[in-house]
Write a sequence for this structure.
């Protein structure tokens, strides 16, 4: 196969087979940017919001690789999120990451694990943390144990900025890779525990691991219990939008595809045992977020409804992504305005997807959480 230098193509990829499996080289202006030598990937949680976006990115960037996608399909896992994928390079496996036998079968032929599988909603962890402990902690340890026994070459753990707790509201502090752990919710505590297990697997057993931590993701196919899609879906139906407390809590928002590109960069270029914070330098108060959505949809501010605050609600998250930018050469591509526009447009044009996920179970959860009937 001709290289980019030989063809004169401005940007292209060349693929060939080595003893380690499929090798793909990425060129730009004739310069070799990266060599990707990983034959088959196991992506866990790949039917969820972020995981499915990563599967789509992986298959788009490297169409000759194979992806084994292991997902238990709990309430937020959705096969509709995988619609339209080329099944030639994608194998879906319905199973539990806490089941060692299932994981062993799923890892057959793989040399890389990217672990997105997690229970991730803080409110649900406050109501009942048992599934968070099983999936986020036990499941991660099972994955690590089986991966080590099967000689996996790299294990990427997708984590969260919430493991580092809350920052002072009016300070200029940011989370760095060296920030102390201070998780304030059962969810955050379970993800912090998972990070410790990944670190231990690297330092004790020499497993090649990389950890990424992200801020609040947004984009297409996000389950509408999360703040931004909840607002969009409710506003589209002229339903009230619940706002916790005074609405001044600050989150650092990142478009899901930008996050996934960061995970891919960490997979390709990250140091063994390394940790990378992935943020878009996009701090927004919750009330500002709601007002942005209402403005784009031309909906009245009267839809906002302030409700009792979440117990232990973290006040501010903000990520310093300098290390990922310098070591991985990664930066977000979307602005807040462009990412929000893409997100809202997707929900506007995918009403059938919304109807399917806002089912009776969702409406009952919404009623218990906010004291009103939503998703009708």
């Amino acid at each position: 196969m001709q290289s980019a230098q030989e063809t004169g193509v401005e940007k292209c990829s060349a693929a060939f087979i080595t003893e380690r499996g499929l090798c793909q080289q990425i060129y730009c202006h004739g310069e070799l940017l990266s060599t990707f030598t990983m034959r088959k990937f196991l992506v866990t949680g790949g039917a969820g919001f972020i995981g499915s976006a990563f599967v789509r990115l992986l298959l788009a960037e490297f169409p000759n690789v194979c992806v084994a996608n292991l997902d238990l399909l709990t309430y937020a896992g959705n096969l509709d999120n995988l619609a339209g994928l080329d099944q030639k390079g994608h194998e879906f496996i319905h199973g539990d990451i806490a089941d060692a036998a299932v994981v062993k079968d799923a890892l057959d032929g793989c040399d890389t694990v990217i672990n997105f599988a997690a229970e991730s909603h803080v409110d649900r962890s406050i109501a009942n943390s048992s599934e968070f402990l099983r999936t986020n902690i036990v499941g991660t340890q099972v994955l690590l144990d089986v991966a080590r026994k099967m000689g996996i070459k790299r294990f990427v753990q997708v984590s969260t900025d919430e493991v580092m707790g809350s920052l002072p509201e009016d300070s200029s502090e940011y989370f760095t890779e060296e920030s102390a752990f201070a998780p304030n919710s059962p969810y955050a505590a379970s993800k912090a525990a998972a990070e410790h297990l990944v670190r231990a697997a690297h330092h004790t057993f020499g497993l090649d691991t990389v950890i990424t931590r992200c801020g609040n993701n947004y984009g297409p196919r996000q389950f509408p219990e999360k703040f931004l899609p909840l607002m969009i879906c409710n506003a589209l139906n002229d339903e009230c939008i619940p706002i916790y407390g005074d609405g001044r809590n600050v989150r650092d928002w990142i478009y899901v595809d930008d996050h996934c590109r960061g995970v891919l960069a960490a997979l390709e270029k990250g140091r063994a045992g390394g940790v990378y914070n992935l943020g878009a330098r996009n701090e927004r108060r919750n009330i500002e977020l709601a007002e942005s959505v209402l403005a784009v949809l031309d909906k009245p501010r009267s839809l906002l409804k302030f409700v009792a605050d979440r117990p232990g609600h973290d006040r501010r998250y903000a990520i310093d992504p300098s290390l990922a930018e310098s070591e991985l050469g990664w930066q977000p591509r979307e602005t807040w305005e462009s990412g929000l526009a893409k997100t809202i447009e997707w929900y506007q044009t995918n009403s059938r997807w919304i109807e399917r996920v806002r089912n009776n179970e969702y409406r009952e959860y919404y009623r218990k959480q906010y004291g009103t009937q939503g998703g009708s």
In short: The two ends are 55 Å apart (CA to CA). The chain has 13 helices and 15 strands. The mean pLDDT is 91.
